[in-house]
Amino acid sequence: MQSCESSGDSADDPLSRGLRRRGQPRVVVIGAGLAGLAAARALLEQGFTDVTVLEASSHIGGRVQSVRLGDTTFELGATWIHGSHGNPIYQLAEANGLLEETTDGERSVGRISLYSKNGVACYLTNRGCRIPKDVVEEFSDLYNEVYNMTQEFFRHGKPVNAESQNSVGVFTREKVRNRIRDDPDDTEATKRLK
C-alpha cells in the first residue's frame, strides 16, 4: 500500500522538478472577458511571465459588447455585476453613482439595475441621451425574433440561410443591423437615433 503522506520535501514532487527545469510555469487563461483579462493581469503582476489569453470570439471583453449603428452605439451586454464584496467593478460603479434602488426599494447589490427608482426601464445612448421606449421595444422584439431564428437552427439543424454558416453572434449582429437599416416603417425618432 502506498502512503499518501507528504515527504516534507516539496522539491521532489513532479511539479517542483518541472518548474526548476523550465524556470516558470506556462499559464493559459481561457476567455478574454473582464474576469479573464483581470486574471491575466494579476498573474503578470505576481511575476508570471509566460501567460497566454485565449478567446473564442472575434472580440475581447466578454459580455461587454457595443454595436454601432450610424452615429449611435448600443450596449448589448454587461447589464449586471457579479458580486459586490471586494469587486473593483462594483466599487467603480458605486463611486460613479451607477447603482440604483430596485423596484422594491432595496439597494441593488451586486449588479447595475436597469431600472430607475420609479421602476421604469431606462436605456441610454453612448452620449447619455435617453432612447425612446418605442425604439427600445422595437429593438428588443427584433433581437428576440433573430434569437428565435438561431434557436430554430439548433433545434432542427437546418440552416436559416447562407448567413447562418457564420457564428451565432455574427448572424445575429448582421440580421439586426440589416433589419434596422432597411426598415421602411422607421419613425423619425428611430431614424435620428441611427
TrEMBL record:
Keyword presence, Lipid biosynthesis: no
Q: Which organism is it from?
A: Mus musculus
Where does the Amine oxidase domain start and stop, copy by copy? Answer: 34-174
Is Aminoacyl-tRNA synthetase there in the keyword field? no
Q: Which InterPro entries match?
A: Amino_oxidase (IPR002937), FAD/NAD-bd_sf (IPR036188), Flavin_monoamine_oxidase (IPR050281)
Protein's UniProt name: Spermine oxidase
Tell me the Pfam families matching this sequence.
Answer: Amino_oxidase
Q: Which GO MF terms does the UniProt record name?
A: oxidoreductase activity
UniProt cofactor(s) = FAD
Parts of the chain that traverse the membrane: none
Q: Which UniProt keywords apply?
A: FAD, Flavoprotein
Specify the superkingdom: Eukaryota
